[in-house]
């Protein structure tokens, strides 16, 4: 996912700092995530999705398809929302399991 986020930053000719500002995230946190020192958080993913309307959520989460959304009909939009919801739900479950495992150690 780091590579896909870097592609977004490059596509919009942004610095990591301006990217962090656009999505409303702490620059240090984003730098740590981009360097692999810290995992990409669900909060960061949601901020990216909410800040870049043209970026395909499915592409961001899975790497499948095109980076930029195509003009779509409302039925495709609802399909996209269902896929996004399912993907985010799976991500939340995975992160919850990770937190639980770390808490129990």
From TrEMBL:
Domain (HTH cro/C1-type): residue spans on this chain: 5-60
Pfam families found in the cross-reference section: HTH_3
SUPFAM superfamilies referenced in this protein's UniProt entry, alphabetically: lambda repressor-like DNA-binding domains
Transmembrane segments: none
Entry superkingdom: Bacteria
Protein name: Helix-turn-helix transcriptional regulator
Natural source organism: Parabacteroides segnis
High-level lineage: Bacteria, Pseudomonadati, Bacteroidota, Bacteroidia, Bacteroidales
């Amino acid at each position: 996912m780091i590579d896909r986020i870097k592609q977004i930053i490059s596509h919009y000719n942004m610095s990591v700092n301006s990217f962090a500002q656009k999505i409303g995230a702490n620059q240090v946190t984003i730098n740590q995530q981009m360097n692999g020192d810290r995992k990409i958080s669900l909060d960061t993913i949601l901020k990216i999705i909410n800040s870049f309307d043209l970026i395909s959520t499915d592409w961001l989460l899975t790497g499948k398809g095109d980076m930029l959304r195509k003009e779509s009909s409302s039925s495709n939009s609802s399909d996209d929302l269902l896929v996004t919801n399912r993907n985010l739900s799976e991500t939340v479950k995975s992160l919850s399991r990770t937190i639980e495992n770390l808490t129990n150690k």
